[in-house]
Every structure is written in structure tokens, then in C-alpha cells.
Amino acid sequence: MRISELFRKNILETGVGGVVNKLRIKKRRNSLFFGDIFIGYVRECEESGYSKEMMDIGRKWMFLYFGQLVPGTIKKLPLPILSRIMKRVWINVGLMEDFNIKMKNGMIEIETRKEAITGTIGRNQFSVGLFMGICNSLFDSGIDVVKVSQTRNLNRYVFRKDRNRKFRIRSKGKKTYDRLNCLKPVKGFTLHEALERKIFQLRGNRIYFRGGSVYTVESTLFHLVGEKKILADRIPEISYNFFRRVIDSKTTVTRKLGLIKILLQTMGWGVVKILERKKKIIFEIRNPPFGLQMERDNWIFLVNAVLGYLWILDKGFKLESAKHQGKLLEVVYSKP
């Protein structure tokens, strides 16, 4: 089933400020994000010596995701059937072109083709962490890395279970997560309409924005990244380098602000109001996506990526403050 079918069959349910995924696992809120920005960030972290930290983020994210959002009945399925389900899900959302997990001689073997991240930047520990977290959750066991082979086309991961160790992370729990991420119906522009009006382009099982890939992501990932605060000061520059390639510099400030409002809302980051003040731009975002992690929610990655977008208006903008109270996130950007 291609992603276009997911929209047609209402498996991807779109509304103002959010996208809800109901494909074969517990109903959950997803966000969309620009692949060029996140993958560029992963590349910089890996190349700057933060591979271990990136592995830790990937591992925690997938452990929480599989532990809280994948039903126990699915996780208990025979491995060949589970492998086919996981393959279908990840291919459907464009994260890879093939996936297979199996047990062989007491080892867990995972083989993938053309992963979104590894296919772009090559060897990386973030992807290793993703599959470690999946195995930690599926087998309720510690996991040791035996062998990793990563190329842009084919990847093989071999892990060994360690029953004497357990991998555990505290979570705020699915009920709290659902309550925080509950979206009340609001009239306005949705992702479905953005696709119809060609703001985004849908080709097979991939979504694009002006030639750049856009991926569906469960937002706990961004909260975990923000918690680590690795190279947060590089996020605006990575974002700016992407947007300056795809946004017409001659477009008016009003149109540029109108576009980022549409992008944030249709990509599932909440209901956005933008206020212009003297030398300040204020984003009021209601119902931003919350994560599964027990630690305090944060939108460090998002607010810095938006700062990079604002640099196409004026490179003098700085992040003045970002605070949230309840379900309202207020971000203030200012310039001298």
C-alpha cells in the first residue's frame, strides 16, 4: 500500500496542526519533517565525534516507540510474520526500500536496503541504535552488537541477546502521551489540502517539498535530541542552507511567514499563529507534539530549525526565548 492509499483510506488522518497514523499499530500522532535538515544534523553529529550519543538517541527512541506504541499481540507474532509487517510499514512511509529480521544460529540478523539516513550519509551509529532499540523491546533483553556492515544500498546488522541484562527507560506512559497529543477539530488548511494544491508533492510512497524528501516521524525523537543538546547551535545553519535553496528570495516577508505557518501546521507541529512586532517575530503554537520520554518535553530542534528559516528574511534574527505552558508553545525571535 503506497502512502497515497494511506490518505485515501484515512489511515493517515489529517487535521489542522496534526497527522494521526492508524496503520496496524496503536493510533498515534505523527509529524512530518524535512529529511535534508534532520539527516544533515545527524551527519554533523556523527562527523563531530558524537556517534555514541546519536546511537543512544536512536536506541531510546525505538525502545520507547516499540514498547508503548506497538501492541503486544503484534510483538508476539512469529518473527517471519512480524518482519513482513515491519517491512510494509517502513516501506510505506519511505524510510527504506527493504527490511528483514530473522534469528540465525542464536543471532538476530537484520538486513535493510536503501535506508533514508544511511543511504544519504553512509556509515552512522544512529541507525545502529535504532535497530538495537527495536531488539531490546522485541526480545526484552540486553543487546550486544556483533557485526555491522553499512553501505548506501545494503546494510546488515548482527546482534546477540544478553538475558542477564535488561534495557529500561522510564516513559510518561501511553495514556498521558495520548492526552497531551489530543487534537480538537479546528477549521483550516490540512496536509491533504497541501498535497492537493501541490505545496507538497506525492510520488509513490514518498512526500517531497520542492525536491527535498519529507518523512513522517513520531515526535519523541525530537524531544530526545533536544534533551541531549548536541550541536544545537548548528541546527539553524543546516536549516538555513536547506531553505535558501528552495525559497524564492524575492518573495515578500508576508508570503514567507505565511508559508512557514502552512508548513508547520500541515506537517503536524500544532496550530500556529505568527505575530510581527517591532524587530520581533512571535510564534504561538497550540498543541505542539509531545513525546513518550519521561524527561521534560522540549522543542529545541524545531525552534532552531525555524530560526534557520527566518534567516532567509534576515540573518540577524536570534532566538530570544522559547517557553511552553500547558499546550501552548511561545517562541520569540528578535533582531538588533
Notes on the protein architecture:
This protein is an alpha+beta fold. It has 13 helices and 14 strands. The chain has helices spanning 3-8, 35-47, 51-69, 72-75, 79-92, 118-121, 125-139, 174-180, 191-196, 220-228, 235-246, 253-266, 300-310, and strands spanning 12-15, 18-21, 28-34, 98-104, 107-113, 142-150, 154-162, 201-203, 206-209, 212-217, 271-277, 280-286, 318-325, 328-334. It has a 6-stranded antiparallel sheet with strand order 1-2-3-10-9-8. It has a 4-stranded antiparallel sheet with strand order 4-5-7-6. 40% of the residues are buried. Mean pLDDT is 89; it is low at 1-14 and 16-24.
Which class of secondary structure composition applies to the elements?
alpha+beta
Number of helices: 13
**Share in β-strands:** 25-35%
Tell me the Rg in angstroms.
Answer: 20 Å
Give the SSE order as H and E letters: HEEEHHHHEEHHEEHHEEEHHHEEHEE
Distance between the termini: 51 Å
Q: What form results from the Cα inertia axes? A: globular
CATH topology of the domain at 174-334: Muramoyl-pentapeptide Carboxypeptidase, domain 2
So what's the CATH class of the domain at 174-334?
Answer: Alpha Beta
**Residue ranges: pLDDT <50 for 5 or more in a row?**
1-14, 16-24
Q: Report the sheet with the most strands, covering strand number, pairing sense and barrel closure.
A: 6 strands, antiparallel
- Helix fraction? 25-40%
**Can you tell me the CATH architecture of the domain at 174-334?**
2-Layer Sandwich
Counting DSSP E segments of at least 2 residues, the number of strands comes to 14
Strand order in the largest sheet: 1-2-3-10-9-8
Mean of the pLDDT scores? 89
